[in-house]
Design a protein that fits this description.
With 382 residues, the chain is α/β, with parallel strands linked by helices. It folds into 2 domains: 1-88 and 126-213 and 308-382, FAD/NAD(P)-binding domain, CATH 3.50.50.60; 91-123 and 214-306, Polyamine Oxidase, Chain A, domain 2, CATH 3.90.660.10. The protein is built from 9 helices and 19 strands. Bound molecules: flavin-adenine dinucleotide (FAD). Flavin-adenine dinucleotide binds next to helix 1, strand 10, helix 4 and helix 9.
Length: 382
């Protein structure tokens, strides 16, 4: 059994941000346990050749399969982090007409586009640039990927964690405190807690949908933004589908691209092969933007509903609105001060957003510091 002071479960943005903050505060006795082979969680991208990839400095050619936008005017903590890390940002391209398919049979029509205010902002290198920059502040040996945390058992002074790797090997960890950087519903339904979480807390976590877990995204990468030459913004709206909402995903200094949210419900997508989805998405882009859309340099579909480390069956129906944040800690009992939720859904202001992962991790760190002080007080000799 390995012993650490703090175990962070989940290596998405919230878990990595918490780890970086611990490093900055001089706390090095921790581990990040991540189930997937790659870090970033819901933040994922492909490069110009269609490979899943991490952002490499100097190569902005990354196309988001997960989040794309942030709003620095009111997401101030995320804005400060982006500035501190020296990441470059730019506004979503929206100049030009939008193409609309208003029914399954009507031909697409051009309508005057509009600019969102405040503008939706993007990062050079995509959201993976943020993951890469945050990760650079963490000692690599403190991050262990390919470790699925299966159970947490709380004793009086510590928590034992059991994880399993892809070969089925089990590891155990003893930590004084656990930061849970896994979405609340996913944690409540896939991790065993002993003793069980207090029932009201478990109910809150279970009823918090994981934001965007029901969604799928299609991305097509091109050599040139040919739609812009026709006075089109790359925006599309469609009642015919399969994509319901399409946007320009081009990256300054790199390739042109379009992306769309697929409107087919998650349960209906289950039986459809990705090659078929890509083919019908390409056909839709041809209808909307012309024949040049038929031959992207590469294209990809990412169905988040099929990701076992993001979605559970209860998420497949989807959520139309961001929910209220559940409590991030038990108010009393064995789990109080030992287990603190820090994934985005626990954020009071930006539950489910990238900015929420930052807010939640920062609030979780504050709660952790006071829990550590409380624990030290209890353990000090009188
Ligand atoms: C298609 C899509 C589009 C989006 N668009 C936007 C957008 O434009 N703007 C915006 O602000 N937000 C957007 N979001 C939401 C944004 O991606 C999330 O809010 C953010 O990435 C959440 O980060 P997180 O670290 O809290 O959670 P996650 O990224 O979900 O990280 C959780 C991590 O825990 C790991 N994990 C799960 N179970 C275990 C286990 N048992 N043991 C160990 N590790 C485990 C997972 O593999 C994952 O790495 C979008 C999301 C999606 C999917």
């Amino acid at each position: 059994m390995k012993k650490v002071r703090i175990a962070i479960v989940g290596g998405g943005l919230s878990g990595l941000h918490a780890a970086r903050l611990l490093e900055l505060q001089g706390v090095h006795d921790y581990v990040v346990l991540e189930s997937r082979d790659m870090l970033g969680g819901r933040i994922a991208s492909i490069d110009g050749s269609g490979l899943s990839s991490h952002y490499l400095a100097g190569n902005p050619g990354q196309f988001d399969l997960g989040p794309t936008w942030f709003w620095p005017d009111y997401q101030r903590q995320l804005h400060r982090l982006v500035e501190e890390l020296g990441l470059e940002r730019f506004a979503q391209f929206e100049s030009g007409d939008t193409v609309v398919e208003s029914s399954a049979t009507a031909p697409p029509v051009r309508v005057r586009g509009y600019m969102n205010a405040p503008a939706s902002m993007r990062l050079i290198g995509g959201m993976n640039a943020l993951v890469t920059a945050v990760r650079a502040g963490i000692e690599p040996e403190r991050i262990i990927t390919g470790q699925v945390v299966r159970s947490l058992r709380s004793e009086k002074d510590f928590v034992d964690l059991t994880s399993v790797d892809s070969a089925g090997r089990t590891s155990t960890w003893r930590a004084e405190h656990v930061l849970l950087a896994v979405p609340p519903r996913l944690a409540a339904q896939t991790i065993g807690f002993e003793p069980p979480l207090p029932a009201p807390l478990a109910d809150e976590w279970n009823s918090t949908a994981t934001w965007m877990a029901a969604h799928a995204k299609y991305v097509a990468v091109y050599d040139t933004p040919f739609w812009r030459e026709q006075g089109l913004s790359g925006e599309g709206r469609s009642r015919r589908g399969p994509m319901v909402e399409i946007h320009d995903a081009s990256m300054p200094g790199s390739s042109a691209a379009l992306f769309g949210f697929i409107g087919v419900p998650a349960h209906a997508r289950k039986t459809v092969d990705d090659d078929v989805t890509r083919a019908v998405c390409r056909a839709q882009l041809v209808r909307l933007f012309g024949p040049q859309a038929a031959a992207p340099r590469t294209d990809a579909v990412k169905d988040w509903a099929r990701e076992p480390f993001t979605a559970v069956p209860a998420d497949l129906a989807g959520e139309a609105h961001h929910g209220a944040a559940p409590s991030n800690m038990a108010s009393s009992g064995r789990w109080h001060g030992r287990l603190i939720g820090i994934a985005s859904e626990w954020s009071p202001q930006f539950s489910g957003y990238v900015a929420g992962a930052i807010e939640s991790a920062e609030l979780g760190l504050k709660a952790l510091m006071s829990a550590m002080t409380e624990t030290a007080g209890r353990e000090a000799p009188t």
